[in-house]
Amino acid sequence: MQRFPDACRTVLDLEYGVLQAEGRLAQVQVGALPEKEGGPYSYTAPNLTPDAQPTATASGATAKDGKASSTTSSPQKKQRVFLQHKVSEIEHDSSLYHGHGGMKVKIKNLSAAGNEPQVLEKQYPYVISTLPGGAYLNGEIKGNLLNQLSFPKAQAIRECQYMASFKAFLTFKTQFWAKLGQRQGQGLGAASSDRPNRQIIYPTYGYEATQGVLQIYCWAQDARRLGALSDEERVAECLKGIAYLYPDVDVYDQFSGYHDGKTTKTWFWDDHAGGGAFALFNPGQYKNIYAALLTPEFGGCLNFAGECCSVHHGWIVGALDSAYNAVYHILQQAGATDKIEQMQKTWGTYAPPDIASDAMTVSVMDYAYTYNEVDRKASSKAPGAAASIYGDSEFEFTGNVPAFVANYGNVPQMLICIQN
Fold it and tell me: In total, how many domains does the chain have?
């Protein structure tokens, strides 16, 4: 939104939104789906800057102009994402890389043939972990996922507050809500009640179709209670909540049918989410644990990212901010000034959003890009305290992820989530 506000606004203002075919094409271009079922994956996104182009692409990739690329006549395939693999242990070894130190990583191949998963051991000079806080419990009989952490880092991971979240997507034969409700611009917004489903989110596009989808969205205790039910029971509760708001409609007749395991999602009970959907700090946690969450460990060898390592909890922009900061830290440690310049040219630098000329904004949003010095240091022990069981490492945070909004009371609240 900050870098390309006009382009983002154009997409949001599309009359019919982004259609399914366009969404699939985008997934093919970024390598999330093969062009043909069973075919190879490629990376052919047409809107990348030259510096952001991959160093090697899969066979069959095309250039921006749609023609075969001359640089891919002898492509080198490189697998970047490994599915059905689980990291079971990460440990620092100071003797690696000529005394610089590095991280040893144990990985379980869960798709390997046989009863026992294959264990792979790798080493890297730098590692970035993007796991949510609860996912650091690896469930192994022996050995922890993270070892020898400084006390502030271990405390920050343990105490970081996460919010439970629940979503359901219910398909109906007709869009009865569009006929019975007065549309607000291009969408119907949301409806809230004191029923267990709490909130209904109406679609903002696709009104020309016969069928339609209603999204149920709730958080915290409501999400945990719905999540404790079976998948089919969750759907039943959601249907009762919709029927309560539309007593003149036979909601059950309009419902297109239940699809086992595909209609609802609760992150609190998810095996990979670690007990929450996104971070949402308790009072005082920005001051007491935020700097420790962002601070690298082991002299910069182990870095942390994810929306919890930002002020934009629960939003993709928070994950992007933290990713930029983690990569920046690694390049700093490696002394790769040329790569830092390349990254800044490709992805920009942190600066206050240029929104002064935006007629929709009533005041300029000012960010503070530094922390107080006392909050920057993640020391492993308090002054005068005994040595920590986690070791005595110390690292001063020098990152520049936006921290706090100055003059918060005068900032349009609805813009805080979408700026930057």
Answer: 3
| Mean of all residue pLDDT scores within the chain | 73
Angstrom CA distances, 381 to 152, 211, 299, 387, 393, stand at: 8, 60, 17, 7, 9
Interacting residues of 60 by C-beta distance below 8 A, sequence separation 6+: 35, 40, 42
- Find where tokens 């922390």 sit: 371
Which stretch of DSSP H or E encloses residue 210?
none
User: 315 falls in which pLDDT band (50, 70, 90)?
Assistant: confident
DSSP 284: T
Binned at pLDDT 50, 70 and 90, residue 45 comes out as low
Are residues 199 and 282 part of one domain? no
Q: Mean of the pLDDT values across residues 12-36?
A: 67
Note whether 253 and 326 are same-domain residues.
no
Helix (H, G, I), strand (E, B) or coil at 328: helix
Bridge partners, 199 (sequence order): 192
User: In CATH, what number is assigned to the domain containing residue 254?
Assistant: 3.90.660.10
Roughly what angle, to the nearest 10 degrees, separates helices 337-347 and 316-334? 160
Mean pLDDT of 290-306: 89
Which whole-number Å values give the CA distances from 11 to 1, 205, 340, 416, in the listed order? 11, 12, 31, 20
**Cα dihedral sign for 64, 65, 67, 73?**
negative
C-alpha to C-alpha distances, 64 to 29, 44, 78, nearest whole angstrom: 11, 8, 21
Structure token digits, residue 307 = 């929306």
Choose one of 266, 296, 322: the last residue of a domain.
266
Which residue would you say has higher pLDDT here, 174 or 347? 174
Q: Are 43 and 32 in contact (CB under 8 A)?
A: no
Q: The tokens of 85 are what?
A: 């693999």
pTM over 0.70: no
Q: Is residue 27 part of a domain?
A: yes
Quick one: 261 and 325 in the same domain?
no
For residue 352, the enclosing domain spans 146-161+278-415
Average pLDDT over residues 305-317: 88
